Amino acid sequence: MTSSLTSKNHPLLRLLHYAKNYRPQVWTAVIFTILNKILDLAPSYLIGVAVDTVVQKENSIIAKVGITNITGQLAILSLLTLLIWTFESISEFIYDRLWRNLAQTMQHELRIDAYSHLQELELSYFEERSTGTLLSILNDDINQLERFLDSGAASILQFITTILAVGGSFLLIAPNVAPFAIIPTPFIFWGSLVFQKRLAPRYADVRDKAGFINSRLANNLSGIATIKSFTAETYERDRVLSESEAYRRSNRQAIALSAAFYPAIRLVVVIGFIATLFFGGLAVANNQLTVGTYGFMVFIVQRLLWPFASLSNIMDQYQRAMASTRRVMGLLDTPIAIPTGNRSLPKVRGEVHFDNITFAYNGRTNVLKDLSLHLLPGANIGIVGATGSGKSTLVKLLLRFYEIQGGQILVDGIDIRELQLGELRRCIGWVSQDVFLFHGTVGENIAYGSFDATESEIIHAAKLGQAHEFIMQLPLQYDTIVGERGQKLSGGQRQRIAIARAILKDPPILILDEATSAVDNETEAAIQKSLAMITQNRTTIAIAHRLSTIRHSHCIYVMDNGQIVEQGKHEKLLAMDGIYASLWRVQSGIY
Question: Which ranges carry the ABC transmembrane type-1 domain (predicted)?
Fold first, then answer.
């Protein structure tokens, strides 16, 4: 446990564990990468053999196998060279293709797994993190891993192979000279470890700064209309400038250390080269080495030491990749706070029971306190109250967007924590005040969640939602692109499409959270007529500030400070002369 590499939390080991399904491909790539480097080094050995062949002739190494003719010996060397270069090219093609395909596959799998896991996390996770930071992980960090697997992994393997092959050859053929060539390597290796240790936190900071600037850009692009309306372009440009400058400074700190490494390594490499040149030459003069072996050593010593110079680039890639791996694996390791149950709902009647529920957002004061509410199948209720009274929280808890801290919520007598999340949410249609439309056509947005719906079913839902008339006036009608978040449509148009989307889903339980807040009075009246038909034989919960929306509900519940303080039909609540009556007088202009 003393070494970070032996820790099970080390990002490299996490990455290798994640790639366990691709081990055959990884090992094949590793073998051909090593083989390619050995074949790449082989011509250097053949140069030494060729020099000895020309100098020693019938006493050369090749002559010992029976070929004494110099022409034959050189022909053998030429043929070996041709074969080695051919197999080197083939092995390079194989390992390069394997690593690249593995990089693309891992990139694909990691992105899908990370995104799938992200979708399983609770809403509070997203409320505590910026969209830009999450996008940075899903895009930049995973792309960084792809670049490392594409070329960095092979570079590391070939570096190690070069050191072992060349260093081992030196010890075998010239043990007296080898130490002078190898002396610099421990210093270079030690320096590399120190370099790695100091560079790691700098690149972790670079990744963090990249997330910050992505968050700023994503947030500003989403709020571009607000920026323009407040003429805040210069202010926002300065904020982006500040984030970008912080990112640049962070990169500069990493680059300053990385750039200093290469010149330092060069000085040490020169020392090893000079030592080999000098002491190797003395060995030849004393007949301890052949001319060919000396020529080989002077040539190959650079192949031994210069890879250490490229170690800075290798470590640079490695540290960037490990910083990205930590962030990606950190996302994948995030526990799911709202796990799915295992029970299904084959036929939903629509009975909903909130039984003494208590809830607070992340340690804040309770939003709901021992609240109880029992809805029979087919009930049509309204919920009203001041902002912050807990109305929308109530329905979000029913959808299990958040988890209650006390009590239980039952659907058809089953605790929703026991139900499969997909089963629970499929039986609930939700129209929120903040309507979200996806970039796509009007028809695609209405059919979202009901992907097998026919064109006639989409049109029928649009008519019930009072959306068909304005859709037919659009340039391409149901094939009109709505833009990102539906920005090409008005608020009222977006809301009517959302209502049509919920109608097409045909859920046993329907939630209307300020569903008509963005429409005019005429459209609201038309939607009310449609809702009278839509809400038949299904449990409906309508949350509204505009009391005209819910005045005909079977029962109206008034919430205040996380509790139900009044309940009854419209007329009964007016007669009580309480909170509801006060709200009604304000909205109807009666003071």
Answer: 27-320
CATH topology (fold) of 11-332: ABC transporter transmembrane region fold (1.20.1560)
Q: What tokens does 9 get?
A: 């939390």
Distance CA(523)–CA(515), nearest Å, equals 12
- By residue count, the chain amounts to 591
The contacts of residue 413 (CB under 8 Å, 6+ apart) are 351, 353
Which residues are bridge partners to 441 per DSSP?
481
Contact status, residue 563 vs residue 370, Cβ threshold 8 Å: yes
User: How far, CA to CA in Å, does 152 sit from each of 9, 112, 147, 252?
Assistant: 21, 23, 7, 22
C-alpha 559/C-alpha 392 separation (Å) is 11
Q: How far is residue 303's CA from residue 41's CA, in Å, rounded to a whole number? A: 8
Say what the pTM is.
0.71
- Kindly give the parts of the chain with pLDDT less than 70: 1-9, 46-69, 73, 177-178, 180-181, 192-193, 196, 225-226, 229-230, 262, 289-296, 298-300, 302-306, 308-313, 363, 515-520, 522-524, 526-527, 588-591
CATH number of 352-588: 3.40.50.300
Q: Considering the chain, tell me which residue range(s) the CATH 3.40.50.300 domain(s) occupy.
A: 352-588
Contact indicator for 290, 53 with CB cutoff of 8 Å = no
Give me the residues paired with residue 527 across strands.
none
Buried b (16+ CB within 10 A) or exposed e, 357-367: bebbeeeeebb
Q: How far apart are CA 591 and CA 255, in angstroms?
A: 70
Task: Tell me the pairing of strands 406-411 and 352-359.
Answer: antiparallel
Residues of the chain with CATH 1.20.1560.10: 11-332
